[in-house]
Amino acid sequence: MDLIHRPRRLRKTKAIRNLVRETKLSREDLIYPLFVVEGEGIKEEIPSMPGNFHLSIDKLLAEVKKIVDLGILGIILFGIPDQKDEIGSTAWAEDGIIQRACRKIKEAYPELLIITDVCLCQYTSHGHCGTLEEGCLLNDPTIENLAKVAISHAQAGADMVAPSDMMDGRVGAIREGLDQHGYEDIAIISYSAKYASAFYGPFRDAAHSAPQEGDRKSYQMDPANSDEALREIQLDVEEGADIIMVKPALSYLDIIRRAKDNFTLPIAAYNVSGEYAMIKAAAQKGWLDEKVAVLEMLTSIKRAGAEIIITYCAKDVAKWLG
User: Which positions are annotated as binding Zn(2+) (predicted)?
Assistant: First the structure.
């Protein structure tokens, strides 16, 4: 009799399926984003990102406590200042929104990993990620300012800084600046392959960071390109990145996989606001099961090769994983 292969034997029960599961999602894989605003007594849900909030610093610690209690190891902070100017100078102010938030969180929860977004789009009056001149984003003056931002975040207690601007040479400038100021142990988690994606819409509303004119296609990557991502990652590795990130995640699982296959540094992926909002909207309509869809989505990101997942679903997922 010909032998019949029966792979279904290993799918028969939940216990067997769990036993042989190749990819296992853990709450320890997750980083939760937080949006910090000026003012007092503010906890306002972001309409396009249900379950996520604008938080003033006095409301921030209560939210952080929930995150710590859920066993989530880290957060990434985004600041939304009241004052903006042409170069985004409040981004590196000693009393800036992120600097104050870092100090407050570290004082209360010293073991929590704090990652800070290093970019200028929330801080510039024009909404672009650096210094503009006649409508053109200037690379080298921008990276000088980004280094100032990273240093100020380190001084305030950040454990990692995450440059998300996609300027050429910014990882090297930030590494040099941190080292010169005695912050050799502060890691850089670099947005190495950040695409000019349609999936950032809800975030730009949340962070008040949409460009006043034009777009970011001259510095964020073309979604059609794959080999270019490897070149960008290689440059960041050579400049001193400690972790490399791909953003967005779902439409770029192939990029995550290529990064995993070609580099030995840890890989992070950003499960961005549009990806989150799509599932939330469909779940609210009753078109899919939110829990099942979210866990499938995040498992696919980890299966592609990401060890770290930044996601707005982190709190829900931590509860579901138990």
Answer: 119, 121, 129
